[in-house]
Batch of 2 targets.
Target 1
Amino acid sequence: MKVKSIKQAKKLAGKVVLLRVDFNVPLKKGKVAEDYKLFMNLPTIRLLTGAKAKVVIISHLGRPEGSKSKKALSLEPIAKRLGQLLRKPVLFCPTVIGPTAKTMIKKMEPGDILVLENLRFEAGEEKNSSRFARQLAKLANIYVNNAFAVSHRAHASVAAIKRYLPAYAGLLLEQELQNMEQIKHPRRPLVVIIGGAKMSTKVGVIKRLGKKADHILLGGAVANNFLAANKLPIGKSLADQASIKMAKKLLKKNVVLPVDIIVAKGKNLTNVKMRSVAKVGKTEIILDIGPETMKLYAKYIKTAQTLVWNGPMGKFENQTFRHGTMFTARAVASRSKGRAFGLVGGGETIQALRQSKMFDDVDWISTGGGAMLVYLSNGCMPGLKKIVR
Ligand code: ADP
Ligand code: MG
């Protein structure tokens, strides 16, 4: 793998660099609630300002289409937080393109930082519109992609834009790719742990990494589909027919399923009980893995030399159903940074890792959830073309 790194770019002084980042972070009461993605972009921003480039940062935030308040999806509070992290003024432009953006960029001094408004406020972004890409490109001299998490999407700011500007990988994108190599060419045994909710986003990785992995441990709602495929009762658990059908095809020898689980009933999730997987009642909902499953999974994790974890093992946002996920975080972290290479990724998975206080104890926390799964399943990454060979 060869990466065209921003470290190779010469004569950045005075140039306008369009830096595509993923600042799609959770906000709470108008403030950044989780700043890992911001933090991980600081080295690239510092490299550019240090080289006296004019840094114009672009990102999307949420899904403005169909959302009631555009204001709630403004990048302004994120620009403010970035300034605090950098301990430097960060300018904010209330538009993405147009005369306001042009004027503000014209006034920039070398080393200045400007954040443009939410890319998805422009319809051309998600349509990968050439026109919009050209309008963006006109604002700058060089393009840098640092948004691994968005690189699996054919959107204008990661795909079409590269037709109009010389393109490089930022330091974070480069690091993400280097760490993914450890999974593509793993030390064995490779143990992959997949949980979470949406089966459709996990199928590719279960299929591809499943072929390579020594063991693939399943949890979360994803596992429900596999239990059902094995003709086990799952009551009213989150699952669907299409996913169960897919699960049937993916049930290989190296797939390990929960042997016991935690169930509850009704809207309020009352009547919490521990059950063997064969004994789930008709009205019960599976919400976490049980203690026997944790013991079983620990055995596999303890032998691993390479570990990948994506997706919580249960509905961890609810204190009652967080144990399986906290166990997984601790088990992965305790092997990592030494006995095994441990890679963790995914929006909710990162939140869970933070909760477990194991954030500093794994080898790499990927800023990409969906993108990580696509990359590891050798899927198409339009954002990497012309940058990675
Ligand atoms: P990530 O963002 O880390 O990739 P996902 O988005 O795939 O993870 O899934 C995270 C969600 O899955 C969490 O919000 C969690 O509550 C939910 N979840 C996990 N297990 C279950 C379950 N058994 N039933 C319902 N929801 C679950
Ligand atoms: Mg998620």
Target 2
Amino acid sequence: MITAIYPGSFDPVTNGHLDVVGRALKLFDRLIIAVAHNSEKQGLFAPQERVELIRRSIEDSSKIEVVAFDGLLVDFAANCGAVAIVRGLRAVTDFEYEFQMALMNKTLSPGLETVFLASREAYTYLSSRVIKEVARLGGDVSKMIPPAVVQALREKLGG
Ligand code: ADP
């Protein structure tokens, strides 16, 4: 049973994230989607709301667990029995930060690998931040996020 962990803010989950999830499931037996609490970064959705939105957006959940976590990712990954961290790479702009984190995590936990999945072309420009910006301004983002998130954004932002 090979377990991987897919950490992120997921504030909120987008079709880009779900695409990474679907592809990671082809590589691993079990995937833990780990929603990071970040006390410095107040999200639009509370961590537990983000967890719920992911749970409602995944179709076959038999190989997936969705949890919120805080603290050091490598410790959390070890507690879950994960052998790999999955991250998505959209563009060169993601690369520097992701590379830095991967090297840091490798230093902290040499047995844990980071696996990067290149974004599907259609999702290259898709991020939670852009979704929130456009939704706030009343733009239609329904093709880029799961239905549960469309509804939740409407409730959160009004309109
Ligand atoms: P973080 O704040 O940790 O970057 P995000 O929720 O923004 O968390 O993203 C989590 C992971 O998913 C990151 O590795 C990010 O690069 C990846 N990701 C986000 N959006 C996409 C997308 N559209 N296509 C592929 N990967 C993505």
